[in-house]
Structures are given as C-alpha cells and as structure tokens.
Design brief:
binds adenosine-5'-triphosphate, 716 residues, 30 helices, binds magnesium ion, alpha/beta, six-stranded parallel beta sheet, single chain
C-alpha cells in the first residue's frame, strides 16, 4: 500500500487504508468495536471527494443517527477543508429516503410537499380506520396494527405483498385490508409515515426503470455505517442502488447487532457477499478505544454467543484497570455510589462530558436523575426525555396535582379526557365557559356543569364519574401514602388499562415508567412533598453549555465512546430484560448479550458494572440476582467489590439451582473460556472468518414486541 501521501490517511493502519483506498468494487469492513470502522469510513468519504473521484452530490453515505451524520460531516471537513463544493447525500436512511421521495412524489401519488406523520398521528388515523371498519378497537388495538404495519414496511412488503399468514395477524385476517385502506388514506392526506420513507422508495425504484437508472448512474459511491443493523427494506434499497456500479462500502460488526426488534437482520452481512460476488472483505483487528482488560472482558462475554462470524481483537494500549463489578444493596445506593464516584472523578479534573451511565431501559434513569438533582450534578439524557418530562409521568402527575390542588386548571385540562372518555373539545369549552362566568377553577366548574343540562349523553356521564372519582381520591389522599394513592388513581382512572390494551413495546416501557414513579414516591410522606420535589426537578434544566454526565440507554450509545462508563442495573430481569428471559429463545438472550458487549466497549479507560441486591417494587423489597452476564465475564479481567453484606456471589449461589434454560450455554462458555489459553496477550477471542452456521439467521429474526405485559423493556 502506498505511504500516506494523503493527509486523511495519516494515522490509519494498513487495513484501514485498504478500506479507504479500495474505492472500486464492493467492500465489506467487518470488525469489532472500537477498531476504527467509522474513522475509516469517514476517511474514505474524504478521499473520494478530495481525489475528485466523484462530486459530493454523487455520493450516498448512510449513518445510523442524525448526530452521527453531523459528526461525519465535521470530521470530513477537518480532513479536507471546507472548500468542498456541494454536499454528499449524507444522513440516516430516513432522511435520505425523504429527500429522494420528495423528488419523485408524484410517481407514488403524492405531492412533493407531503407531510411526514409521527406515531401519534399514525395511531389517531388507524383508530379512525378501525372504527370505520366496525372493528372493536379494544380487541384489536391501533397500536398492534401500527406495530404490524411497521414490521411489514421494514420487510419491504406493500399491502399486495402480504400472504394470508401475515394478514391473519390482525383481526382474524383483516390485516391486509386494513393496511390497504391505511395506505390509501395516507395518500389522500398527502402524507407518509416513517416506514413509507423507504418502502415508497423501493416501490419507486422497482416500478420505474428510468428513475432507477438515473440513481444507479448518479451515486458513484455508496457508504454505510452500522451495517449490521440494516433491515430488509434498507438492504433491498441499497442493493438496487448499488447494482450497476457496485461501489458500495459497508462497515459493521455482527456482535453489535441490537435492533432485531426493529427488523434489523444480521443476515444482511452474509447476503452481501452473495449479492456482490468478489466483495473485498477487510478485517480490522486493532482496537484503539479500550484498555486490554475492558476489551478482554467484552470479548470473553460475547464468546458465549453462538453463530458469530468470529473476530480477532487486540490492543497495544497500557493494560489499565480491570472492569469493576460493584455490588450494592439497593437502587438508591447504586445512584448514591455512582454519584459519589462521579464527584470524585470531577475532583480529579475529569470532565463530566467524559462520563456516561448506560442503562438497559428508560425507567432506570429516574433514580440517577433524582440523586443528581439532589447533589447538584449536571446531567443530560440522550435519546429520550428526562424522567419527569415523559408523557405518561406528566399525565400521572397531573392527576395528582388536581387531587392536591383543585385550582390547578392546567393539570385538569391535561387529564379531563386522558384516557379518552368521551369528553371532547366542545365539552371542555363549555366547562371553560362556566368557569369564566363563575370565576371558578375548571374542576369546580365541572362539578357545577354536571348538575345542568349543558352536557348530555356520554360526556355528561363521564364527567360526572370523573368528578366523583376526584372527590374520592381526595378523600383517600388523607389516609393513603402517596405511592398507594397513585396506584389507585392510575387503576381507577383507566390509565393503566389504556396502556395495557396497547400491547406494544412502547406501552410496556411506559408501564414500567409508571411503576418507577410509584417506587419514587415511596420516599415521600405526603403528596404535597412529592409534588414540591417534582416542580423543583422540572425547574432544574441543566445549562446546555455546561459539562454534563450523559445518561442513556445502551441502544442510544451505539458508536459512541467515553473515558468512564458506568453500566447500571446488571441484574437478571433488568438486564437481560424480563421480556428477553420470558421469551426464552436463545435469540433474545443473545441479543441482550450483544447489548452488554456494546455497553462495555463504549468505555475507553474505566468500566464499572453495578448490580443491586434489592429493588423495591410497590413498597416490597424484592431480592434480585446479578445478571448472568456478570458471571460470563472472564474472571482474570474483572475485580469484584461489594458494599453489602453477603455479597452478590452468595446471591448467585443461592439461585444456582433454579431451572436455567441457558445452562448449556454457560457450560459451553466455560469450556471455551478454558480453551482460550493463557492470559490476555494479543489474544484471539475466537476463530477467523468462518463460514457462518445457519443459526445466525435464527438469531437475527426480529423479536416483535407484542409480548408480556408490564415487563421491563427498552424504550430508546
Ligand atoms: P464502533 O464499533 O463502536 O462503532 P468503530 O469501529 O466505528 O467503533 P471508531 O469510533 O471509528 O471505531 O474508532 C474508535 C476510536 O479509535 C476513536 O477514538 C478513533 O478516533 C480511534 N482510532 C480509529 N482509528 C485509529 C488509528 N488508526 N489510530 C489511532 N486511533 C484510531
Ligand atoms: Mg462506529
């Protein structure tokens, strides 16, 4: 390979350079975490432009998030200066899909100014259509249909592509019909949902040869980051676009495939070699991110998965510290300990920006947020809302505010028709009128209006029920502790039932958040105290300029790196999630294990994994056992620390006789660990680039989220 005559090649190792300089023909970079895949892809983009192999507008570059796209743009700017004319088509699948679709909207029966509807709009629309079809929405919730339609779109299936089996998944075979009317309605509205952004493009390229040829000609180079998480429709779209010139470079890591629940298919990696014969496979083996102990711990863990492509990883960084396993007594102690340690790091002049806390599910952020606000530690939540800003938490708190303070009109307005109980805008308007006339709060006006004939039918009955409920809850508030009161309100108001009926991944995440709210309230004696706390928390917006600890889900942390990483809540049932354990399939636990691998490999210098022996749920202490993933970490690369009596290993020992459907896996892992040989010396974690057993395909099947109710789950 040529010496780095190009500045953007400086600092890249030979295989990385190969990935940059092999501009012609298909290239697949398959490599573990932190090996510089994204770095190489960025240099490749810079190289193509700087060497004038193509105009920027002739390059298509796909990243997984908008943030990653911005970063790639910036880094490229630093490599080749900003003198570049025009911009590449650089963004997420969705953003690029939307851009292309606007140019050809009319070919799909849309206008170029079509709107992109969000999930809320989508649900409202589906509800209308379900009603119009005379289906019982309670029995066949709009959310389930929305989930199915997303799944079909991720697979690249239009309504006419559905077979009877797929159609049978909704309302006794009405799936296809409902999908058809939904698509028709979207067209009438000149609108698309997210799934359409790619599906319409695929239809466009399939049905219009001239358009296909135009783009095949136009995009001289195609680059894709995080390739392991592409789903079928994305893959088919890429394949069509690349079919002529075949200059497509994809980088990915099968061990970091964590979106199968959204339809991602690791099998796309295997298809790549088939669809693009002669593809150049580049393997990067040097990890530049993490110290050897961190890398070895992560590699040892992921070795327990079956059907991996297999990779070698090494680093020449100083050995650094072992991965620390910290067992604490309970959730509050976990938050306290991590908070203390972060303050210690701060004292040692570590920037808060270099510290991250990674959680499995959104609800886990609450304990940290409360603690950090208490001690005045700046934090930010990436890829989600701060706990008390989430819609379901705001709803629950609005109920409590109305109970606590009859004059709280904003809160009353928020809950009067949430969940939907037939008190529409007109009825609310009437309540407002009475309130204005009598200079009374809305809740008082509501009580007044039900005694008149201003309202009729359902609205009157529902409002009357609500007024009576609120009065009753106010009574209960004098006797019940705040947490019990909240449970009662969520139950009686129909709020919990509403979420349960949805049977979706998001809804179960919301139910978990509500449970977490109830848990949080157990620390407060009165409703007033708690609400006071909430208003202080809501007021505590960290200044965006200030340094801040990042709290986020592992899903949101993909591709990122931090000097110090705290992985919190490694307990069976939290991580791996209860849902994954219930589903019981190997595939779901293996996906959780890949998540664990992603979490550990975000750390550069120090990785701390915490687990609590007790979690408090509904006022009851429940003992939890450390995550099976902790056991799977190679002992020579971890150090254990307990702050509780008994110790986590004891807990584990007590539980070792439980029926473990994965026992054989653990055993296999132990054998492999033994066979791995002495120590960690530029060690291979598994064999070379093996042909892949068919199990990979199984492992990559999407686990569609219509499962267990109220279980721990992710909400990214
Ligand atoms: P992930 O799988 O997590 O997405 P990745 O393979 O994309 O990781 P990068 O994020 O590109 O890895 O790189 C990891 C770190 O290593 C970054 O800090 C990057 O700047 C650095 N790095 C990449 N290549 C080199 C190199 N040749 N020499 C020194 N540092 C490098
Ligand atoms: Mg990357």
């Amino acid at each position: 390979l040529p010496a780095p005559q190009y500045p953007w090649l400086e600092g890249l190792n030979p295989p990385q350079r190969e990935a940059v300089l092999t501009t012609e023909g298909p290239v697949l970079v398959l490599a573990g975490a932190g090996t510089g895949k994204t770095a190489a892809l960025t240099a490749r983009l810079a190289h193509i432009i700087a060497e004038r192999l193509a105009w920027p507008s002739e390059i298509l570059a796909v990243t997984f998030t908008n943030k990653a796209a911005r970063e790639m743009k910036e880094r490229m700017g630093r490599m080749i200066g900003d003198a570049v004319e025009g911009m590449p088509w650089l963004g997420t699948f969705h953003s690029i899909g939307a851009k292309m679709l606007r140019r050809h909207a009319e070919l799909l029966g849309l206008k170029s100014n079509f709107t992109i509807i969000d999930t809320d709009d989508q649900l409202r629309l589906l509800k209308q259509l379900i009603e119009a079809a005379n289906l019982d929405e309670k029995r066949w919730p709009a959310r389930s249909l929305a989930g199915l339609i997303d799944k079909w779109k991720n697979k690249g299936l239009t309504p006419t592509d559905l077979d009877a089996g797929e159609s049978a998944l909704y309302a006794d075979g009405k799936g296809q019909a409902m999908y058809t009317v939904y698509q028709a309605r979207l067209r009438e509205l000149n609108a698309c949902d997210f799934g359409d952004l790619l599906l319409h493009n695929l239809t466009l390229l399939k049905n219009h040869r001239d358009v296909l040829e135009e783009y095949q000609e136009k995009f001289k180079y195609i680059l894709v980051d995080e390739y392991q998480d592409t789903n079928a429709v994305q893959y088919l779209w890429l394949r069509l676009l690349a079919q002529k010139r075949k200059n497509i470079a994809c980088v990915g890591d099968d061990d970091q495939s964590i979106y199968s629940w959204r339809g991602a298919e690791v099998a796309n990696i295997l298809r790549f070699e088939k669809d693009f014969p002669g593809a150049k496979i580049v393997r990067l083996e040097q990890n530049y991110r993490s110290t050897p102990h961190i890398l070895a711990a992560a590699s040892g863990l992921i070795a327990a998965n079956s059907g991996r492509l297999g990779k070698t990883l090494w680093t020449d960084l100083d050995s650094g510290e072992k991965v620390r396993i910290l067992g604490v007594w309970d959730g509050p102690e976990e938050a306290r300990r991590i908070g203390d340690e972060i303050e210690e790091l701060q004292y040692k002049k570590v920037s808060l920006n270099d510290i991250a806390i990674l959680v499995r599910a959104q609800f886990q952020t609450r304990e940290f947020e409360d603690r950090f606000i208490q001690i005045g530690l700046n934090y930010k939540i990436i890829g989600g809302f701060r706990f008390y800003e989430r819609a379901e938490i705001r709803d629950a708190i609005a109920y409590l505010r109305v109970i606590n303070q009859p004059a709280d009109d904003l809160a009353f307005e928020r809950i009067v028709n949430t969940p939907k109980r037939g008190i529409g805008d007109k009825a609310v308007e009437k309540i407002h009128r009475v309130a204005r006339a009598e200079r009374a709060p809305l809740s008082v006006a509501a009580a007044r209006i039900i005694g008149t004939d201003e309202l009729t039918g359902k609205a009157r009955k529902s409002l009357s029920d609500l007024v009576i409920d609120i009065a009753r809850w106010r009574d209960s508030a004098t006797t019940l502790p705040p947490s019990a009161l909240t449970e009662l309100v969520l139950e009686d108001s129909g709020y919990t039932a509403m979420l349960q009926a949805e049977r979706s991944v998001e809804a179960s995440g919301r139910l978990d958040n509500l449970k977490e709210l109830v848990r949080a309230m157990e620390e407060y004696e009165s409703l007033g105290d708690f609400l006071e706390h909430v208003s202080l928390v809501m007021d505590n917006d960290a200044n965006a300029q200030d340094e801040a600890v990042t709290i986020m889900t592992i899903h949101a942390a993909k591709g990122l790196e931090f000097n110090h990483v705290f992985c919190a809540g490694w307990e069976d049932g939290v991580f791996p999630s209860q849902r994954a354990m219930d589903e019981g399939g190997l595939a779901s636990v293996e996906e959780e294990r890949r998540l664990a691998y992603v979490a550990i490999t975000r750390a550069r210098e120090k990785c701390t994994i915490t687990h609590a022996a007790n979690r408090r749920i509904y006022g009851q202490w429940t003992s939890s056992i450390p995550s099976r993933f902790i056991d799977e970490l190679p002992a020579e690369h971890v150090e254990n620390e307990q702050t509780m009596t008994g110790g986590a290993s004891l807990w584990r020992a007590n539980w070792s006789e439980r029926a473990d459907p994965f026992a054989h896996l653990a055993a296999a892992n132990a054998t492999r660990a033994g066979a791995r040989g002495p120590g960690w010396q530029r060690a291979a974690t598994s064999g070379g680039f093996n042909p892949v057993p068919s199990r990979v395909q199984e492992a990559s099947k999407p686990a569609v989220g219509l499962g267990a109710q109220g279980r721990t789950d992710l909400a990214i």
